[in-house]
Amino acid sequence: MDKIAWQDAVAFVAGVAALLAPELWADGMGREPLMVLGALLALAGLYALLGAAGPSGWTATAFALLLFVAPWAFGFTGESAAAWTAWIAGGVATIVGLWGATRARGVAAA
After folding, report:
1. pLDDT tens digits along 46-69
2. 10 Cβ partners below 8 Å, 6+ apart?
3. What predicted TM-score, i.e. pTM, was given to this entire model?
């Protein structure tokens, strides 16, 4: 492992925040989608951080996007702490993942 990509660290931290949110500040609202998608996002980020053969950056970005749309898909938009956690963690990880993936693609093409 030569270098740690900060995009992977952002995905890991966002996933851990979503995973722990129902217990720490969301009063159990949106528990299943936040915990499942948060765990998947954190694992994808961790695999990338460790340099293991596993999901690509696009996989973490897909989990982040699913986390972002989870409040609408699972109907917990009225639960502000859970919904805002999903929107912020999912949105930041999606933007950073897309930026990192397109930047890596541009560097590889050059």
Report:
1. 998 888 776 677 899 999 999 999
2. 45, 92, 93, 96, 97
3. 0.88
